[in-house]
Design brief:
heterodimer; A: alpha+beta; CBS-domain; 4 domains; 48% helix; 15% strand; B: 199 residues; alpha/beta; Nucleotidyltransferase, domain 5; 42% helix; globular; RmlC-like_jellyroll (chain A); CBS_dom_sf (chain A); Nucleotidyltransferase (chain A); CBS domain (chain A); Diverse_CBS-Domain (chain A)
């Protein structure tokens, strides 16, 4: 062992779990360490990388562990000196679920798993330490572990974040009894109201709780007579919490105190007024409306009614998430995942009815669904592409898919997605075609937009596979990008399309509102603010040849990276887009519609100013479009 | 220049032939070398300490290292020096021919990296000649030169190892022993390699 290995061993000795190893074991590890130097922002491993054959300890510097959801990078953990990370290869065989990136110049020691594993067999404490840290799925839990950056299950699913901020619905009218009532009276009270707990109170707050468990262990066993005052058998003191406790907190408190009930009081102490009681059951119920569960239920549901029910729970989830200031990008991600699951299930249900399809196909969502931006119930847009079949079979195949389209759109309508007023749906003869026909269609649109103006809509250029053959989507993707390359005519069309929308602000920086109709004096946020942003984002991504990103927010983010010269404009637009979506979603939730028209009077002054400010970057974006594309042919 | 002519009929020791055979393949392994010698003269002075770490895939392999003291009885005797402290230490001690032989076996066809590597190489070559071997065939990189290339420094002022570590803000104990020096050079090399985009 040379002096460097000795130094490494000395370093490791200070940190768990190495402090539990014998010095010869430590020497063995130190001897096999590989030293890696990371520059600022250098990545050690990233999401979906194949697992390395070692795990890591930070020797100096700081390494950030993060998950990336689309273009958003959220840091989960900052690993300082002595922190262990990258334990995944110990326990799992799949890929990394997170990214490790140096925040500053750092040194890390890579310890080969092959060397470390044999030691685990002899050191159960070390094994437990690693297992616990890996399996812990509460963020609070982990902070107590000190120097270990878990990459366990919890953060691997971004939806869980919502869950942990979720507040609880609980019993706000708990059963109450005074300390001098008898056990029998209390049991009677519980039996009558079918509750399993009673809070025992005095004049200045709760002093204890009696649950089924207490009755079972203390009365039913015969240890105490039923006539005994309840104060003798109650569990005391009762654990009290504040009113707006989150799911995670409640879970944690129960685990920590090893209790099944929490008493809610006004100020969270046992010296104030009782507001309610949270039971384990409430926690389970709260978890039932978490996104993961919703998706599972979607997959199992068998009728449009069930799907409709799930969709309405999703709306609740969106609403509560927005109120809790969870980043809109996260909410959109979750909502669109669930939306997609619903769409997919709707198609599957139709297939269950009609029998398996006679040819391979792809059901693509277009428009807002294709961009994965649907928060509220908006209309459905979709196209159906099926593979080329021999001439004699064509009629039969097309017939099947038309039926499939009709059935699915009908199901979706029942769930609550309105039919597209322009008929942009897979059930429409025009938008249910073979691959060759679609390729022809896209070629026509893109090479001669003028002739095809009547049926060309920009929403056809935002598509996302719902169910079916991935290859078909890829084929269409290729055709679009092939045609888009240097196609000034087409960009000209899209550019004009983007700019045609009426400007949101008047010359005097006043909102332009609807002048007549049922939405008189309301601001049309969809067509005056959101659409131009969406259209421009699409135009720029197509012209920059950016593939596979459909979401407007992510598009702007990506554009800022690709085109650093105008990064500021793009980033401003991305922010503006988020804010506008937020306003629209809130409005939609309030009125239970698509939120297209905003009642400006009802907005707070602050929000109104913010809304106005977020419309300003659009002006710059407009200029940029005019500069980048010659918009002569269609104007 | 006509070196090879001089040696053309010479019988090399077996380990040297093995070493030469390794060069049929190109190596991805870097060997970070630090040596200690009694002075700068290739004629009069001798190597007393060789330390090396291997770098592969941008990582320093602690296990793949080399560390040995050369027992220079003759030199010490000739110069009336004591060798007590060497005898006391618990490091691997080998005689000059033995040490060189194991080092050459360890080095193989790896790419040498060092600080003022040319003087180390010259020293080793001189020693090798005493053992009836040829000169080192390995490619050699100098971190000082790498540093100058990276920063486009044109003056000829050579930087000491300490100045380099300060420049790249490498935290390490002041490199007292040869091994620590080799390790520090290795850290510097990793940084420079990344910055220069060497594959």
């Amino acid at each position: 062992m040379n002096i460097i290995a000795e130094q490494i061993a000395d370093f490791l000795k200070n940190y768990a779990p190495f402090n539990q190893l014998r010095s010869d074991e430590l020497a063995e590890i130190a001897n096999n360490v590989r030293v890696i130097s990371l520059e600022k922002k250098q990545t050690l491993f990233k999401i979906n990388d194949a697992l390395h054959d070692s795990f890591y300890v930070v020797a100096s510097g700081v390494v950030n562990i993060s998950v990336i959801a689309d273009a958003e990078e959220s840091i989960i953990n900052k690993c300082h000196e002595g922190t262990i990370f990258g334990l995944r290869p110990f326990f799992a065989k799949n890929k990394y679920k997170m990214t490790a990136k140096a925040r500053e110049e750092s040194l890390v020691y890579a310890i080969p798993i092959a060397v470390f594993k044999p030691l685990l067999a002899n050191n159960s404490e070390v094994l437990n330490f690693l297992l616990e840290s890996f399996a812990s799925n509460l963020p609070e839990d982990r902070s107590t572990q000190g120097n270990l950056a878990s990459d366990g299950v919890f953060y691997t699913e971004k939806q869980s974040e919502v869950q942990f901020f979720q507040t609880l619905a609980y019993n706000t009218t708990p059963l109450l009894a005074t300390a001098d009532s008898t056990a029998q009276e209390v049991a009677q009270l519980m039996a009558e109201s079918l509750k399993n707990n009673v809070i025992i109170f005095e004049k200045n707050g709760p002093i204890g709780i009696v649950t089924h468990a207490d009755l079972a262990s203390k009365i039913a066993t015969g240890r105490y007579p039923v006539t005994i005052p309840v104060s003798n058998i109650m569990s005391s003191p009762v654990v009290t919490v504040l009113e707006n406790v989150s799911l995670a907190e409640a879970q944690l408190l129960m685990l920590k105190n090893n209790v099944t009930h929490l008493c809610v009081t006004v100020d969270g102490t046992d010296k104030s007024v009782i507001k309610g009681v949270i039971s384990e059951h409430d926690l389970i119920a709260a978890q039932a409306s978490n996104p993961g569960v919703l998706i599972k239920e979607v997959k199992r549901s068998l009728s449009s009614n069930e799907l409709k029910e799930i969709r309405s729970r999703l709306t609740n989830l969106i609403q509560s998430s927005i109120q809790k200031n969870i980043p809109l990008t996260h909410i959109t991600n979750i909502a669109s995942e669930i939306n997609f699951a619903i769409l997919k299930r709707a198609v599957e249900l139709s297939i269950l009815d009609l029998g398996s399809p006679p040819a391979r196909y792809a059901w693509l969502s277009i428009g807002s669904q294709g961009r994965k931006e649907q928060l509220l119930l908006t209309d459905q847009d979709s196209i159906l592409v099926f593979e080329d079949v021999p001439q004699e079979k064509y009629i039969e195949v097309k017939d099947y898919f038309l039926k499939l389209g009709k059935k699915t759109t009908a199901t979706l309508e029942k769930i609550g997605y309105e039919l597209c007023p322009h008929g942009h749906m897979g059930s429409n003869m025009m938008w249910c075609k073979s691959l060759t026909d679609w390729i022809k269609q896209y070629n026509n649109w893109m090479n001669a937009p003028r002739e095809n103006q009547d049926n060309l809509s920009s929403i056809f250029f935002d598509y996302e596979l719902v169910i079916g053959e991935q290859k078909i989507e890829t084929a269409i993707n290729n055709i679009v990008f092939e045609n888009a390359y240097n196609n000034t005519l087409f960009f000209d069309f899209l550019g004009n399309d983007a700019l045609r929308k009426n400007s949101p602000l008047s010359f005097f920086k006043k909102f332009i509102v609807e002048e007549e109709g049922i939405h008189k004096d309301k601001f049309d946020i969809k067509s005056r603010a959101l659409m131009p942003l969406i259209d421009s984002a699409r135009l720029f991504t197509l012209s920059h040849d950016i593939k596979g990103i459909n979401n407007t927010y992510t598009r702007f983010k990506q554009l800022a990276i690709v085109d650093p010269k105008h990064a500021e404009i793009f980033l401003n637009c991305a922010e503006a887009y988020l804010f506008l979506t937020r306003i629209r979603t809130l409005e939609g939730l309030k009125n239970e519609n698509s939120g297209q028209y905003i009642n400006l009077e009802e907005l707070s002054k602050n929000d109104r100013e913010k809304l106005k400010n977020s419309l300003i970057p659009m002006k710059e974006l407009e200029e940029l479009i005019k500069d980048s594309f010659q918009l002569t042919q269609f104007s | 220049m006509l070196d090879w002519l001089k040696h053309i009929n010479k019988e090399y020791p077996e380990f040297w032939n093995d070493y030469l055979a390794k060069f049929s393949k190109k190596s991805k392994r870097y060997v970070i070398l630090a040596t200690d010698a009694t002075g700068n003269s290739t004629e009069k002075d001798v190597i007393t300490f060789i330390s090396a770490f291997a770098v592969e895939d941008d990582a320093i392999l602690i296990k793949d290292s080399f560390e040995t003291i050369l027992l220079q009885y003759r030199f010490l005797h000739d110069n009336h020096l004591s060798n007590e402290y060497i005898i006391e230490s618990r490091l691997l001690k080998l005689s000059e021919p033995e040490a060189l032989k194991t080092f050459i076996e360890y080095l193989g066809n790896g790419i040498l990296v060092g600080h003022q590597i040319q003087s180390s190489v010259a020293m080793i070559n001189a020693t090798l000649e005493r053992l009836d071997c040829g000169k080192l065939r390995n490619e050699a990189l100098d971190i000082d030169i790498m540093h100058r290339k990276l920063n486009e420094i044109t003056d000829d002022k050579e930087l000491s190892l300490d100045e380099l570590t300060d420049f790249y803000k490498i935290q390490s104990t002041p490199a007292n022993s040869t091994t620590e020096r080799a390790y520090t050079i290795a850290l510097l090399f990793l940084k420079l390699k990344f910055k220069l985009g060497l594959k």
